[in-house]
Design a protein that fits this description.
The protein has about 270 residues and is mainly alpha-helical. The protein has helices at about 5-25, 40-60, 65-90, 100-110, 110-130, 135-150, 165-190, 210-225, 225-260. The chain contains nine helices and no strands. The longest helix has about 35 residues, at about 225-260. The chain is globular.
Length: about 270
């Protein structure tokens, strides 16, 4: 994928939109629990979906390949949504989720924009299937989008889509999956933590200074989420080490096949 100014703008906008949506509960006055998050959640979900549609529209305008990429992404998102349904129907180890594997590999192979789309829309579609729509959904969409988007930053070795790979890139992808396995839970908790009640040293206090609230949050995180995130991180690492090589080969074969399919044949 060649660099384009639109790519920089889209990736920057995704970062800013994500930061704004995730920090909203900590900034607005209803962050102390006196307001109704249900009035804000649909708005933010709508903004994220509109943003995803803008990415699709811009990429469709840029080349014929991207029309095929949209169909490809639809298949990947459907597979991932199905995996998340199975994850809920047949619970495994707490925190483990197979859905991040494809999100990371799509972002790594095809670029940050496609990684963001895969992550955000996987969470949205799977939430509709599993009934998981709630105030946490915007945070899940944005954070999963970041998981895929940031995978594009660790490209390593062969970038010519020859189907070959280096063990270094698999190791880097595994590290990426492990890090995001921890960060995912750390970030999405911010969406509902300000509205929780419980121990005074673990809940959001609207009158407290930022440093004290950070301390409260870390106490809450260590008590409730750390084990789940460690399990997710280990699961991501194991899946990437086992499955990344064959999946990357398939993805790169897809790139080669459709890159040749629309090259112009010179007139003789």
């Amino acid at each position: 994928m060649k660099f384009r100014l639109s790519s920089l703008i889209i990736n920057t906008a995704a970062l800013l939109l994500g930061l704004a949506s995730l920090l909203t509960p900590l900034v607005f006055p209803w962050g102390n629990g006196s307001g109704d998050v249900s009035t804000t959640m649909p708005l933010i979900i709508s903004l994220i979906i509109i943003f995803c549609l803008i990415i699709i529209f811009l990429d469709i305008q840029s080349s014929v390949l991207d029309t095929k990429m949209i169909a490809f992404l639809g298949v990947v998102i459907a597979i991932n949504a199905g995996l998340r349904f199975l994850e809920n129907a047949i619970p495994g180890p707490a925190g483990f989720s197979p859905t991040f594997l494809l999100i990371i590999l799509v972002g790594y192979t095809f670029g940050g924009q496609y990684g963001f789309l895969t992550g955000a829309l996987t969470m949205f579609v799977s939430a509709l299937i599993t009934g998981g729509v709630g105030p946490w959904l915007p945070g899940q969409m944005i954070t999963a989008g970041w998981v895929g988007q940031s995978a594009a930053l660790i490209k390593w070795g062969n970038q010519k889509s020859t189907g070959k790979y280096k063990i270094t890139e698999i190791i880097l992808l595994a590290v990426h999956g492990g890090v995001w396995g921890m960060l995912y839970g750390l970030i999405i908790n911010l969406w509902y933590w300000p509205f929780l009640t419980g121990s005074q040293n673990q809940i959001w206090s609207f009158a407290a200074p930022l440093a004290e609230n950070i301390k409260h949050y870390m106490a809450y995180y260590l008590a409730t989420s750390l084990i789940w995130d460690i399990t997710r991180a280990i699961g991501n690492v194991v899946l990437i080490l086992i499955l990344a090589k064959p999946i990357i080969k398939i993805f790169r074969r897809f790139q080669i096949r459709f890159s040749f399919s629309y090259q112009e044949i010179p007139n003789k």
